[in-house]
């Protein structure tokens, strides 16, 4: 009793008379305090453990392999002699091939990583069918670009280390973007894909066209990024979240006082992505940028850069802003009609004797193709057919990637030395390089949607049916008119390939000796030709994406 009293009142306190029952109750209270402190300690330990999560390295392998390869190339460039720097090209191609192969273990799975450890489940990285499809397009397109670049890098004496590092860095960002599921990761991935591309465009130092193209590309992209970041900040302020799924749930319940802020954020974010996809009227940078860039870089921008932009646009519209579909659906439909019309009319105006006419025609053609790619996304907003509409866009993008890279490969392989790439320079190509002329003709027919380019025809039908099913009959009519306009310039270039050149009159008996094509360019043309033929013979290989539930 004396000890108990000393504990309560101090060692020199006077001990009052305490009953035995009171002492017993006090002991029990002490035990309860000890158990409560232990429970709080256990909960604190669990809270610490909740902050720790496992990283799914297999899921993030595709962009991670490319990023690591970029660092390896950058370091190797410091130690290799000038003669051995030619090894950087094959090393980059092998890394891109390994990254593409790392997609195989992920097929048929839906894997998440970098997820929130508390509250509603939301992840920053998701390897679902949509992400894997676009990553296949990005890594495959980057691999073809690497094969296409080996000869021009040597012939134009581009700095090899910088070129391959920038290409791999851009490809890693483009591969990360389709799997991103929060706005911060989306913006970072898009900028990682874009910033190295500025330098790639201006890598031909001392050339006025290259410097102008890089500056125009840089200024337009920076403006788009500024607008996009402002929109993202507004959306975050209104919803309190960066994750796409959480934003989709929060936007319909936004406080009425923040409704204008949320709507403005959605609009600005979509405008930023419209710049990245080269949708009219935000397309002005495309022709001059493609002309000033090395041909492989122009091919890369037309396929991989476009895929990155459309990946982001699909994710923010379909996954983050479905509650605003009644607004962005009709707007994208109008943008699609405007983009395909401006692109095809711009390509139709190209003269056969204009400098850089071949690349400029392909540049305007890529703007028109962007209009077709926008149609299914607009249909998704109008009719709410998210899965099928997005699948139609992915199927068309895969077809476009194969045949457009093939067309750029033939242009790069047969650009006469000392010439500036006029369409007339490809006149009579069938007499000097019949197989290359046949390949280019086939690629152009695929882009036009004419047999034997069956894959192009079916891809256009898939996009056309998406517009009709969504009730966008007027957009289907506009698309049909633009397909007819595109036939004119595609068939004009195709006919030039089989006409005798000015240096070889029609009555001449012997064709001039053909110029040897370097092996990397030959492999690139052959690879894209085989892929285009395979998909035309079995178009279901690509069109199956139109029927898949990609999300």
TrEMBL record:
One of its GO terms (cellular component) is plasma membrane. It is found in: Cell membrane; Endomembrane system; Membrane. The keyword Metal-binding does not apply. InterPro entries: NADH-Q_OxRdtase_suN/2, ND/Mrp_TM. It is a multi-pass membrane protein. Its EC number is 7.1.1.-. Keywords: Cell membrane, Membrane, NAD, Quinone, Translocase, Transmembrane, Transmembrane helix, Transport. Residues 180-485 form the NADH:quinone oxidoreductase/Mrp antiporter transmembrane domain. It holds the Pfam family Proton_antipo_M. It catalyses: a quinone + NADH + 5 H(+)(in) = a quinol + NAD(+) + 4 H(+)(out). The chain crosses the membrane at residues 57-80, 87-107, 127-148, 160-177, 183-203, 215-238, 258-285, 297-321, 327-349, 361-382, 394-414, 435-459, 471-492, 513-534. The keyword Translocase applies. GO terms for biological process: ATP synthesis coupled electron transport. NDH-1 shuttles electrons from NADH, via FMN and iron-sulfur (Fe-S) centers, to quinones in the respiratory chain. The immediate electron acceptor for the enzyme in this species is believed to be a menaquinone. Couples the redox reaction to proton translocation (for every two electrons transferred, four hydrogen ions are translocated across the cytoplasmic membrane), and thus conserves the redox energy in a proton gradient. NDH-1 is composed of 14 different subunits. Subunits NuoA, H, J, K, L, M, N constitute the membrane sector of the complex. Belongs to the complex I subunit 2 family. This is NADH-quinone oxidoreductase subunit N. It comes from Streptomyces diacarni.
